[in-house]
Design brief:
The protein has 254 residues and is an alpha/beta fold. It has one domain: 4-Layer Sandwich (Metallo-beta-lactamase, Chain A). The chain is built from eight helices and 14 strands. The strands form two sheets. The chain has a seven-stranded mixed beta sheet. Strands 7-8-9-10-11-12-13 form a seven-stranded mixed beta sheet, with helices on one face. The longest helix has 15 residues. The chain binds zinc ion. The site of zinc ion has 4 residues, from loops.
Length: 254
């Protein structure tokens, strides 16, 4: 499984895109989260890695939660597929699938509606979430198919509904902590993967590098970090930060 890292920043970063990635599944590219400036993030990661990604090939978006540094690009993607899709000759383009916990899907339109409902200043909305996206619920503790990958979700402790992920393809499995307080049980769940991408947000409702340093070496050695503040000191404890444009090639040992 190839995972292109498209953003490593936290919510306040002036140097990095919001933490996010593109996973190459058997059925196409899967975006994990969709920060503001998402098309620039995808293009820059494509150029850095040499791994070309056509944004219209990203037809599955997994949304871990509704903080802006994870969902701020949804308006761009929704409008892009509907109105900019090549070959549709004025007809609406295909809808990307939006995978998220049910309570996240329930409230996504609250964020998007003022910009996307087409109400023209009246109280009569023309469009709804389903106009732009095909909502696909993730199952807490269960598995769904996303572009040929098996995706299992688990709620994290982060102040608002948030999902950690296990994304299993034919040749490897990615663990994605998403945003979370330090939770050794969550880390244990993520250890079913071949590589854990863990947040290191250092603030309230996040996980600190000192907390991650308490994990056994065999856990830290299969863990890469993101979502670290610009001002945070260099990381130690054998822990390794991801870089934007890095292409992770995740393969199971078996
Ligand atoms: Zn968050």
């Amino acid at each position: 499984m190839d995972v292109l890292i498209t953003g490593t920043g936290d919510a306040f970063s002036s140097r990095h895109h919001g933490s996010s990635s593109l996973v190459r599944g058997p059925g196409g590219w899967i975006a994990i989260d969709c920060p503001g400036g998402v098309l620039r993030a995808w293009r820059e990661a494509s150029e850095t890695s040499g791994c070309h990604v056509d944004p219209f090939e990203v037809q599955d978006i997994i949304l871990t939660h509704l903080h802006g540094d994870h969902c701020g690009g949804l308006e761009t993607i929704g409008f892009m597929f509907r109105y900019m899709h090549p070959g549709t000759e004025g007809e609406p383009g295909p809808r990307p699938r939006l995978h998220a916990l049910p309570e996240v899907l329930e409230r996504t339109w609250e964020r998007l509606a003022p910009a996307m409902d087409g109400s023209r200043g009246t109280s009569s909305p023309v469009h709804e979430l389903e106009t732009y996206f095909e909502p696909c619920p993730l199952i807490d503790g269960g598995t769904v198919d996303v572009a040929g990958c098996r995706v299992e979700a688990r709620r994290t402790s982060h102040g608002i509904p948030t999902a950690a992920l296990l994304v299993a393809g034919p040749d490897g499995c990615l663990g994605w902590s998403s945003d979370t307080e330090f939770d050794p049980e969550l880390v244990n769940w993520l250890m079913a993967s071949d590589c854990i991408v863990h947040e290191c947000g250092e603030g309230p409702k996040h996980t600190t590098s000192d907390e991650l340093a308490t994990l056994p070496e065999e856990v830290r050695s299969c863990m890469r970090l993101m979502h670290r503040p610009d001002s945070a000191p260099p990381i130690g404890h054998g822990l390794s930060l991801l870089e934007e444009g890095e292409l992770l090639r995740i393969r199971s040992d078996a």
